[in-house]
Amino acid sequence: MSTRSISTMWTLMRRELWESPGAFKWAPITILGLTLFFIVFGLILGSRFDNEMAFTLDAIRQFADVPTDQKRLFVTGALFAVSGLFFQILLLVLLFYLSSCLYDERKDRSILFWKSLPVSDTMTVASKVLTACLLAPAIYLVIVVITQLIVLLIATVYGFMAGINPFTAFWLPASLPKLWSVMALGLLIQGLWLLPVYAWLVFCSSWAPRVPILVAVAVPAVISLLQHAWSLLSSFSMPELNVGLIILKRLGSGILPSNIGWRVESSGNNIDLADVEFSEELFMSFSNSLEYLARPEMWVGIGIALALLAGSIWFRRRATDT
């Protein structure tokens, strides 16, 4: 790709941010504000029941004395928990954004203006997908980093009040560079893993006459119901491959930190909490995310996504009205 093409792509992606400031700018900032509000509210409420914060400060002192590996597990787990709501909202934002990204320009007829510019339909569709896979996650990750730093600063204040060293108790166990690198890698893998879902939404947005998000949900839902009905009528059993369940499973396993696997050792078919190996690697392992690249369903999904995006480009090239 030439420098001019990269510049054009970046301009198109910036256009997406400009057209959807609520989804890509104000939504994560709002989540940051709500997260900090509830944290501060919880601390204030707790102080009302904890006379002079004696119990809280004593708990912090005890935490400072636990083994280092347990500190790392607790701190990284807490920071991942802080990020969970951001990434769940990000997925919802992307689902609605992609389902309307091509439909809206057909609806308000702004497509006539955009098609008059020297930008190909391929570049336009690619810019929307790259915005969903790269730019939007990067923005949310930056806000997550800011939120985590503020949380650590609050913990630092309480650490000083408890008379401990906050650096060794909170900051060092957090392993922030590695934590943020794992999260960034996880978001990149998430973009690839969910690419067929994203491409399906863009495809529906390129041709659906009305409410593309409803069309995107209704089509696989109807196919899934027909599969169930046919299996029950023909063999009175559940279908081996169900479209709806495949999509739901892909969505469920593709959201950070859900796409970070747990190492489980079990001698039988039943797995309980005791089988889970708890360590900092539970959250801080690059291999757990990279493992997705070795799955055949990853590459099958990417192939399906490319086909759907090709269809989206074809429909946009011929789009004139809703």
Automatic annotation (TrEMBL):
Bilayer-crossing regions: 23-45, 73-98, 138-160, 180-201, 213-233, 298-315
User: Which UniProt keywords are listed?
Assistant: Membrane, Transmembrane, Transmembrane helix
This protein is called: Uncharacterized protein
Organism, by scientific name, is Wenzhouxiangella sediminis
